[in-house]
Amino acid sequence: MPQLNKGGKFVFGLSVIHPDLTIHIPPQALSEYDAARDGKVIIFTGSKITGGFCVTTYSLLSNSKLKHILEECPRLRDCQLSEGEFIQYKGRKYAWLSIDKSGVIKMPQSTLSVLELQSGMELLSIRSSDIAFTMGAKGPLLEKAHNFHGDIKKY
User: Fold this and answer.
1) How far is the C-alpha of 133 from the C-alpha of 136, rounded, in Å?
2) Which of 43, 37, 13, 51 is nearest to 111 (CA)?
3) Over 60: is that where the pLDDT of 1 sits?
4) How many CB atoms lie under 10 A from the CB of residue 44?
5) Is the pLDDT score of 5 beyond 80?
6) How far apart, in Å, are the Cα atoms of 110 and each of 85, 106, 116, 132?
7) 111: Cβ contacts below 8 Å, ≥ 6 apart
C-alpha cells in the first residue's frame, strides 16, 4: 500500500466504477476493515474536498463513538431502506449496500447520482480512520495518485 507523500495518507488502490455499476474494493481495505464480514456495508457521503463516499460496517460503527448514528436512524440500522437509498442525518447521507466475499459492491444508478459519480470514474481508496475508509472521487489526493510514480493497483 503506497503512501503518496511522507507523513501522508495511505491508499489501498484505485477502484474503477465498471459499466455494470460494480466497484471492487481493494483487498487490503477489505481485509483491514473486515468489510465483507456481514455481507453489508454502510456508505456515507464523503467530504466536499474528496467527494465520493466512505465505507464502514455495522460492526465497526456500532462499536464506535459514532454508534448514535445507528441508534438514531433505525431504518438504516435495520435495513428498512431500499438498498442504496439514502437517509439524511446531521449533514451527511447514509445508505447500506450488499458486498460479496470478494469485495464487490453494486450501486444502483440512483445512488451514484446522489454521490455525483458515474461509470468509468476512478475512486481512490484511502485509509481514513479506524471506523471507515474513503473512496475519493476528486481532490488533491486523487491528483497525487495519478501523478504518483510508484505502484498503485487498479481494481
Assistant:
1) 9
2) 43
3) no
4) 21
5) no
6) 8, 12, 10, 23
7) 43, 84, 85, 86, 95, 97
Residue with cell 481494481: 155
DSSP H helices in the chain:
27-32, 58-62, 68-72, 74-77, 109-114, 140-147
Place of cell 489501498: 12
**Would you say the pTM of this structure is higher than 0.85?**
yes
Nearest CA to 12 among 2, 22, 21? 2
Q: Provide the pLDDT for residue 83.
A: 98
DSSP states of 116-139? T--TT-EEEEEE--SS-EEEE-SS
Residues 25, 32, 50: CA angle, nearest 5 degrees? 55
pLDDT, tens only, 21-74: 999 999 999 999 999 999 999 999 999 999 999 999 999 999 999 999 999 999
